[in-house]
Design goal:
The protein is built from 14 helices and 16 strands. By secondary structure, it is an alpha/beta fold. Strand 15, helix 13 and strand 16 form a beta-alpha-beta unit. Helix 1 crosses helix 10, helix 1 packs parallel to helix 14 and helix 6 packs parallel to helix 7. The longest helix is centred in the middle third of the chain and has 24 residues. The model has no long low-confidence stretch (mean pLDDT 94).
Amino acid sequence: MSKIEMKTPLVEMDGDEMTRVIWQWIKDILLEPYIDLKTEYYDLGLVKRNETNDQVTIDSAEATKKYGVAVKCATITPNAARMPEYNLKEMWKSPNGTIRAMLDGTVFRTPILVKGITPYIPTWTEPITIARHAYGDVYKNVEMQVPKGAKAELVMTDKDGNKTSETILDFKDSSGIIQGLHNRDDSIASFTKACFNYALDMKKDLWFATKDTISKKYDHRFKDIFAEIFEAEYKEKFDAAGIEYFYTLIDDAVARVIRSNGGYIWACKNYDGDVMSDMVATAYGSLAMMTSVLVSPDGIYEYEAAHGTVQRHYYKHQKGEETSTNSVATIFAWTGALRKRGELDGTPELVKFADNLEKATIDTIESGIMTGDLYLLSKLENKKKVNTKEFLEAVNDTLSKLM
């Protein structure tokens, strides 16, 4: 069988630890035998980021702007313990955070459903996609410890030097803490449009929730921008597509989500999305069964797994011990990027390959062959636990029959 041609390269961002090992195995076993794989390669492993003073991360984001589609392996965001382990020059920032900021992107995370694994909330028969605004809030905050007797104020100075202030609290009786958050109208608008466009692409209802009854200016600004852009640019498109935009308070949204059947996109502010995406992933069964795509308002896509580098398994792998690491989300990062590349380039063979690889992955699990995390969750009677590489080889056996 001749290999499937690619017209335009993908941007390939390699990563760290066990996911880096799996990354190469996926290419060797599932991709390169079938595709004349063209990528512009960037090594985002912590060693290379340290060598380049993190310039490689910036370069990879610029390349993504150029080519429009990227696929990213999980990477280490170093903490203090990683400094001596990797002999780091400094505690480098999260590559995901850098790339999100440069692409002005919104993160969409969706669980992968398979038969035999029942969500902890059994009414969830369809996936819930979390759309996370990836800018501002607590992730760009300013914090201070306040001594007893101090008074904390929020002060704004306009372009003419005029000051407006609000007292936060007079700490006359106790010391304490304060935190300053911010956001930008242009970032909120980009988030809004990305959510509406993704809902139209997926033909799914969009929910958005904040706490505007309490946060009457900060959260209310999000609500207003969503409403204004929807009415001006998207209402007719949503009506034509037969989908709905729905706003409610965040606590009401949580109650509705728990009672729902799924099948919609839930847009959240940055912190809410961080928390709710992990909650939804766990409730569906496993963070290793969660796709993640960063979408910019001008139509740039970066696909990755929602989980980390699987550090514990990597240390076992280094010792020559067998691991049973779930590779499904990383496989789906590749299929998402290949499908989008095929759609943008008009190469239906590439789109079909991505569809077949996803089907082969799900069919393999549903036939009873799975890694250890799914083995513990699955209710299938004839299930078999396999190691990391054996699972990829089993997927390839299924894929070869589909091809």
